[in-house]
Amino acid sequence: MARFAHTVTVAALDRGWFEEAADALVDLLDASREGPGGTVVLADGRAVEGLRLLKGRHLRPGARYGEVPAAREGAGTGAEAADGPAALACGTGDSPAVPQAVVLRAWRPSHSVEVESLVVEEGMSLKLGLRLSGPRRPRAVELSLAGHQPGGGSLYRFSGRGKADLAAWWAAVDRLPIAPPAARPPASGRAVHRLAKARLTLTPRPAEDGSWRITVALSVRGRWLLRPVGAVVLFFARGPLERGLREAAESAAAEWNTALAELTPLHGEALRAEIADALVNPDGPKAL
């Protein structure tokens, strides 16, 4: 087995602000409705940018949503336009930009939200799942991934699962900087392939200046009779893997720090209005 680890420093996210923003977002979506042409309309009458209800009832289990691609130059407005959401739901038409749909499995704002997406890209079929526990005050996020290439056999199949225990995360970053890190990483994920399996963990701890220091650890090992072969491969690939983990962690940390620096520290109705504006106009001048 090979193990790699790298620690990055990121700006701290305020828990109170995060939970207030999550609650406001859930409220806005819970009060939304289906509008003309399958649009999703907020309570104030404005449509959420790019989002369409393709099938089912809005915010009911089985509802299918997707993005509507921009109209092609010279596209007709007759029969093609009349197809509307129904054509998108079936994935018909000759447009190369047919959106991938997301299916709502559960919408219980006081308990959990679950969504699932099937993506087909470059011959690979990917099934993605997300479950958020306690949406108004998020307690945990669970992710699942399964991929395969139709007709490709077991070598073209893989799966993965991940979970972030947010309560454990907040507890870890609220410890004293001199305290030892949490015994169990509050965020972890596993990926499995016929040839190998991998585990990724994130362990945060507070820094003296109030920021967070997050240790990203990756372990990889071969499976079954291929462990000796995997050991040889990992021996030669150790350098690139270690460098890849370091670069990915540093890049993610830089993006996180940039995003937090652009957040507007609003609260109450001002925060709610800012989130609504971001849903309606993601490219607007204001940043959430």
Describe, in plain words, how this protein is organized in 3D.
The chain is an alpha+beta fold and 288 residues long. The chain has one domain. It has 5 helices and 13 strands. The chain has a 13-stranded antiparallel sheet with strand order 1-13-12-11-10-9-8-7-6-5-4-3-2. The longest helix has 36 residues, at 227-262. The chain starts with a strand and ends in an 8-residue tail after the last helix. The model is unreliable at 70-99 (pLDDT under 50).
Task: Produce the secondary structure layout.
Elements: E1 2-10, H1 15-30, E2 33-34, E3 39-41, E4 47-55, E5 64-67, H2 79-90, E6 102-108, E7 112-121, E8 124-133, E9 140-148, E10 157-165, H3 166-173, E11 187-193, E12 196-206, E13 212-222, H4 227-262, H5 268-280
Antiparallel strand pairs: 1-13, 2-3, 3-4, 4-5, 5-6, 6-7, 7-8, 8-9, 9-10, 10-11, 11-12, 12-13
Helix pairs in contact: 1-5
Brief summary:
The protein is 30% helix and 35% strand.
